[in-house]
Automatic annotation (TrEMBL):
<dbReference type="InterPro" id="IPR029068">
    <property type="entry name" value="Glyas_Bleomycin-R_OHBP_Dase"/>
</dbReference>
<protein>
    <submittedName>
        <fullName>Glyoxalase</fullName>
    </submittedName>
</protein>
Length: 124
């Protein structure tokens, strides 16, 4: 069954303003590894996604992305201290503890995509 192994899952996120969304993701901490006129690939560690220059409000406003990180406090501090919410006119939520013990905060992107940035509790 090794022929069925997956290499990567690359969700494609919509962008209302392609250039603005690219700047947001660069400021968030992702790096753009390639781009053309209609899409770009962003990576952070082993995580990647595609950003597309195709916006539909119903898609953007109903897209949810979860990013699991090692240190949620470092991510939240980076977003907060960099004033990303003010600069990019997006919403940043506080760090909360979830029912399963994970800690997370939410962040919208400039197109309305909701990100949940999560740190899972350490396994005992």
């Amino acid at each position: 069954m090794s022929r069925l192994d997956a290499i990567a899952l690359l969700p494609r996120l919509p962008a209302l303003n392609f250039a603005r969304s690219q700047r947001f993701y660069l400021d968030l901490g992702f790096r753009c590894v390639w781009a053309n006129a209609t899409q770009a690939r962003f990576e952070c560690g082993a995580t990647a996604f595609l950003l597309g220059d195709d916006y539909m409000a119903v898609v953007a406003e109903n897209t949810r992305v979860q990013l699991e990180v090692r240190d949620v406090d470092a991510w939240w501090s980076h977003v907060h201290d960099s004033r990303l919410a003010d600069i990019h006119d997006v919403r940043l939520g506080p760090v909360d503890t979830l029912a399963d013990g994970a800690r997370a905060f939410t962040l919208t992107d400039p197109s309305g995509v909701l990100w949940r940035i999560v740190q899972r509790p350490a396994a005992d």
